[in-house]
Amino acid sequence: MSVLHSLIGRRRFLASTLVGTIGVFLSVTAAMAQASGDTSIRPFKFHASDEALADLRRRIAATKWPSRELVTDASQGVQLAAMRELARYWQTDYEWRKFEARLNALPQFMTTIDGVDIHFIHVRSKHPNALPVIVTHGWPGSIIEQLKIIDPLTNPTAHGGSASDAFDIVIPSLPGHGFSGKPTILGWDPIRIARAWIVLMKRLGYTRYVAQGGDWGNAVTEQMALLAPPELVGIHTNMPATIPDDIAKALQSGGPPPSGLSADERYAYDQLDFFYKHGLAYAQEMGNRPQTLYGIEDSPVGLAAWMLDHDARSYALIARVFAGQPEGLTRDDILDNVTLYWLTNTAVSSARLYWESKLAFFAPKGIVIPVAVSAFPDEIYTAPRSWTERAYPKLIHYNRLPKGGHFAAWEQPQLFAEELRAAFKTLR
Amino acid sequence: MIMSTPSSSPTRRDLLVLSAAAGAASLLPASTGAATGGDAIRPFSINVPEEELVELRRRIAATRWPEKETVADQSQGVQLATIQKLARYWATDYDWRKIEAKLNALPQFITEIDGLDIHFIHVRSKHENALPLIVTHGWPGSVIEQLKIVAPLTNPTAHSASASDAFHLVIPSMPGYGFSGKPATTGWGPERMGRAWEELMKRLGYTRYVAQGGDWGAFVVDQMGLQAPAGLLAIHTNMPATVPADVDRALQLGDPPPSGLSAEERRAYEQLVRTFKQVEYARMMAARPQTLYGIADSPVGLAAWLLDHNDADGQPAAAVVSALDRTTSATGELTRDEILDNITLYWLTNTGVSASRLYWEYRGGFFNAKGVKIPVAVTVFPGEQYQAPRSWTETAYPKLIYYHRAEKGGHFAAWEQPMIFTKELRAAFRSLR
Question: Which domains does chain A possess?
Fold first, then answer.
C-alpha cells in the first residue's frame, strides 16, 4: 500500500477512479507527489496542442511519395495505394480530439518507478471480489489496443458475464511508449519492465493478481512469471513462447520441417518459416540500429507505414480496412494508435526496446507458475497445444480461437474478454 | 528535375560537339553508328529547379528529431549529434550547384536499354589505344563515387602514368538509381544489369573492354563475368565474392568456422560474422523496400539511412564518419560535401525506395564464390567489410590475373582513395592490353 493510498484512504481513491473525474483529487495528489517523492500516483490527462495537430496535417499533405511498388501484392512492403488512402483520410477526416476525449474519460495516472514515469489506465470494477489484472501492450501498439476490453472486463454483467467474472484492470504504457517516460539510460528491457510492473501493482495495493500480454507484453508478462512474486497467481498470454529447440534449429537453417509434425505443428512451422524469411527485418533493424530510424520520427507517413508492416496478416487486415472492408479494426483505431506515436514522439524510443531485449522471442523460458494461453489463428504463429504444454508445465487454459490475430484484444475484444474470464476462472 | 535532353535524336556530330565542348572527349569510336531510334544516345545534363533546393532546405530545417541515443557510441545507430551537425550544414551552407556543375562538365548521356533509360557518364581518353572500362557503383552510392577517378584513368599522362595506362571510361547509374529510370516491373537484378551493360558497351562501339565494380557493382561485374559476353576481357572487383561453400554455410547457420582455416582466413571469417550482424538495413530493404516511406519523405531520415552502411572499421563506415569532419582534401580523401552530394542526389531523384528494391530483386548469396571463369583482378582494401584472403580468391576466381592488398581505402574505395584505386586498375589490367 502506497503512502498516497494510506494518506487519502482507499475508499476515496476508489470513488475517484470510478467516476473518472479527478478535480479535487488531482490537486491533493499533486501535493502528495511533492511530499511523498517516488511513490506518488498522479492523475493524468493528455491534451495535444492545436499546433501539433495542424503541423501533423501539414506534414501529411506535404508527403514526398516514392514510386509505386513493382508487384501487385504486399510482397515488397506496404503498398502505395493503401498508404495514399490512409494519408488522405488521416489528413482530412480523421479527428484526434474524439479519441483524446475517450482516453481522458478513463482514469489515467502517472507514477515514477525506477526513475521513469509510468503512465497507466486503472479502472476498478464495482464488484468487490474482482480479480486484478495488469495487461501489457506491445509494439507497434499502445494502451489503445486494450481500450475495448476495459468495459467487458470491469463491468461483466453488462457484457454477457457474471459478477464473478469481474476484473480490476491496470493498463500501463511501456517505457519509451505512449505517455510513459523515455528511459535515458540503458537497461530497460522486459526484465526491468517486469520488475516495475510488480512495483506498480504493489503500489496500487494489490496483493493477489494476474498478468496478461501479447507481443512485448508477452515478454514482460513471462518475465513477471519468472520473477514469480507471491502475489502473482497466474498469467495469460496471446503470444506464447513455445517453440521447441529442434523446431527453432530447423527454422534457423531454413531447411524442411522435422518429420512427424502434427497438422497444428506443421501449420505453426509454416507460419514461423514465413515470418523469419519475410517478416522479421524491421525487428532486426530496430534491434540493431534504432537510432538510425530518423525517417519515422520526421515523417508521419513514414511512421505509419513502418507501424503497419508488423506482420503479414495484420497488415492485410489493415489494408482491407482502408480499402473499405471494416473488420475487427477501424480506420480510426489504426490512426489513433499511429497518431499517439506521432504526438508523443516515440517512434525511436519505442524501437529501442528491441535493442535492449536480449530475449529470444518464442523460446520457452521455463515458467513454472500457472499459465493460460489463447492461440489466435492470425497470430505470427498459432501455438499448438503440444508445444504449449511442454513450454508451460502448469498450463491452466488452452484454446484455439476461430478468429483474431496479433492485436487480439484490439481486433476481437469480445472474444478476448471471454478468453480472460475462462482463463482465470480457476484462480479466483 | 529538368533533364535537358533534345527532343529529337541527336546526330553523331551533335554528340561529338557536346562531348568535345565538355572538354573531355576526342572521338567516338569509328564503329558507333548514328544514334537513332530505340538505340538513341541522348546527351544529358542536370538542372535542378531552385524550388526543389529551397524545399529541401525547408524540410531539413523543419526536421522533427528523436531524443539522443541512450549510449555514448554508435552502437544504436547514427548518433543524434552527428546527424544534427550534418543537417545544420546541409540546410545552410551546402551548395548543390557545385556538384551539379561538376557533373554537367562531364559528358553525360541517356540511352534506353531493355525498356529502361540508362544514364551514364562517358569519357574517352585522347589516347588511341585506351582500354574501354565500365565501372559500376553500389548502394548507397551513385556515379558520384567515381568522379575522382575519371581524370586519372582517362588522362594518365597528367596523373603520373603513361599513355599506355589510359582507359575510356563508362560510368552508368544503376536502374532505380540517380538519373537512370526507375524500373516499373520486377526483374532488374544484377544479372539483367550485366546484360544491359553488355548492350551499352556494344552500343558505344566497344568490342574489347573490361568491367569494374564494388558493392552492387561487384555483383554486376561478377554476373558479367558469368555471362562472359564476347567483348569482355576481364573484370576487376574491390568487393570480391570468394567465400567457400563450407564457410558460407557456417556463417549462415551461426556455426563455428570449419577447422583448418589459416590465420588470414580465420580473420576474414570473423569479419564476415561481424558484417552479417551489421547488415540489418540490407535485410529490411530485401524484405520490405516499399515500407521505407520515411526515407522518401524525410531528408534527414534518408541521410541517416544512407550513412549507416558499415565498413571494416565501423557502422556507420568509419571512412564516412571521418569525412563528415573533413571540409577540404588535397589528396582526394572523402569530404563532407561529397557525402552530401551523394545524399542530395538520392533526395532530388527520389530514389531512396527505388534503389532499395535492388536488395529485394536479388535472391543469391552475398560473398559466396559465384563461379566466374573469365580473367579476374582483385584489390583487397583494408577498410572493406572483409579482406578476401588470397587462398579463397584463387579458388573463387580460377583465372585470377591480379591480387593485391592496398595499403589504404575501404568499402567506397574509388571515392575514398581515388589515386590508389586508379593505380590498382592500371596494374590490374596491364596484362590485357
Answer: 1-43 (no CATH), 101-241+364-427 (3.40.50.1820)
